[in-house]
Write a structure and sequence with these properties.
- It contains eleven helices and 13 strands.
- The protein has about 450 residues and is an alpha+beta fold.
């Protein structure tokens, strides 16, 4: 009897030992499959299939592992997608945690605040080096809503402007139910502020330019309006008032036309009526239209032009460019005997047009401002020189609309040069030079 019990216990020990070893080996296989990068399948578990309980457990574990892996991959994909979108934003963006340590920064932030070290995990003040950014984040957390501030920062090397103005906005993530921390957006508003200042100056200057002739015309009309019981205006007074009113009405009309021209040019380059025309023909027609003014000023026009120069653009605005530049030279030089040279050459795929006069010139202090709206160099005889102060602004914008550039050089009392450079249409060549003598 004792022998039978011993044999039975021995068999049970062997059976449970085999079961333990099978379960242990199955768990090891399951652990190995879970730690693999690829998604495991229950069929990959050879040992687990020998036990129904172990097989059920393995199937449940692998299913949950697959779901977790899928969720993790989906979250990683969504994160990469969101990071790609945020990197396309031109404004610098930071996401910081409750301790104001950087958890994310987009490409613009890394460009604005370059560093040899990664932004992630570093305090925001260490990355931005400006207390106003950190103070804005701290205030946003305290009030629990979006706040903003401005700060100046020197531009990176190579930037055309030395100092930029930035707007910093911050909002706690808790207000968006996204946890602790905050998002910080830093936007460059330098151009926006400059544009607003230019707009305000333009409105103020335009109002002044329109008010002056309107006030004069209104005064004459009031004087001409015969009240009841008052004698009518005599013929001599009418003869004196009407030409003056007509002159100021013409001035009003020209100011409005010039303002409309600038508005159209700044609206869209697509509004240009692009066609093929000859720049040389445009210059010749302009000189012909100004012939009476040239004769009145006893001036000489020297044309140094090729036979033709094919251009693709809006002929109307190029006529205005040449008209304004040549007329401006004549009106700014009241002394007779002015010599104006108009030269056109081809230079490395670009047309270079020079309009040179030997008049009084432009003082160096005025050179940076001559293309500004309503700016007049000769303020001392502005009543003598007719003009709106918009001519050179139209010239500059029209040339820029054709992807060109204009600059001015002047030596007072000796020479003033306006130099235009504009891309030459493909497969065009200047034909033999056709130098002309003075046009008087």
């Amino acid at each position: 009897m004792q022998t039978v019990l011993t044999v039975a216990f021995a068999c049970l020990a062997v059976f449970f030992g085999l079961r333990y070893w099978t379960i242990l080996r199955g768990l090891r296989e399951l652990n190995t499959l879970i730690n693999q990068d690829k998604v495991a399948r229950p069929s990959d578990l050879r040992t687990a299939s020998e036990s129904r309980a172990l097989a059920d457990l393995s199937r449940t574990v692998l299913n949950h592992t697959a779901e977790t892996t899928l969720s993790r991959d989906l979250e990683a994909t969504q994160r990469r997608f969101l990071e790609a979108l945020l990197n396309e934003i031109e404004d610098a963006l930071f996401i910081v945690d409750a301790d104001s340590e950087v958890r994310f920064s987009n490409r613009a932030a890394k460009h604005l605040f370059p560093s040899d070290h990664n932004h992630l995990g570093r305090p925001l003040i260490e990355v931005c080096l400006d207390h106003r950014v950190v103070d804005t984040v701290r205030l946003a957390k305290e009030v629990g809503s979006k706040t903003q501030d401005r700060f100046n920062r020197r531009a990176n090397s190579g930037h055309p402007r030395g100092e930029r103005i930035y707007l910093v906005e911050a909002e706690p993530l808790s207000s968006l139910e996204l946890g602790q921390g905050a998002w910080v957006l830093i936007r460059d508003i330098t151009l926006q502020l400059e544009t607003e200042r230019v707009r305000q100056d333009f409105v103020a200057n335009a109002s002044h330019e329109l008010r002056t002739p309107l006030s004069i015309m209104s005064g004459y009309l009031e004087m001409m309006d015969a009240r009841e019981g008052e004698p009518p205006v005599d013929a001599d007074t009418l003869k004196r008032c009407i030409p003056t009113m007509r002159k100021h009405a013409d001035r009003l009309s020209r100011v409005v036309d010039d303002m409309l021209a600038i508005s159209k040019l700044e609206g869209s380059d697509d509004l240009l009526n692009r066609e093929t025309f000859d720049l040389v023909e445009s210059i010749r027609d302009t000189v012909e239209n100004l012939q009476l003014l040239i004769e009145n000023h006893h001036a000489r026009i020297n044309l140094d032009l090729p036979l033709n120069a094919i251009m693709v653009g809006d002929r109307f605005y190029w006529d205005q460019v040449f008209f304004n530049l040549i007329e401006n030279a004549l009106k700014q030089n009241l002394e007779p005997g002015l010599k104006i040279t108009v030269r056109l050459v081809s230079d490395h795929g670009r047309y270079r047009i020079e309009i040179i006069d030997d008049g009084v010139g432009i003082p160096s202090a005025d050179l940076p401002h001559v293309f500004k709206r309503f700016y007049r160099v000769q303020k001392d005889h502005s009543q003598i020189i007719k003009g709106t102060g918009l001519g050179l602004s139209i010239v500059k914008r029209a040339i820029e609309a054709h992807h060109g550039s204009i600059r001015v050089q002047s030596r007072p009392g000796r020479e003033t040069s306006f130099i235009i450079e504009v891309p030459q249409p493909p497969a065009t060549k200047l034909h033999e030079s056709n130098h002309e003598g003075p046009v008087t």
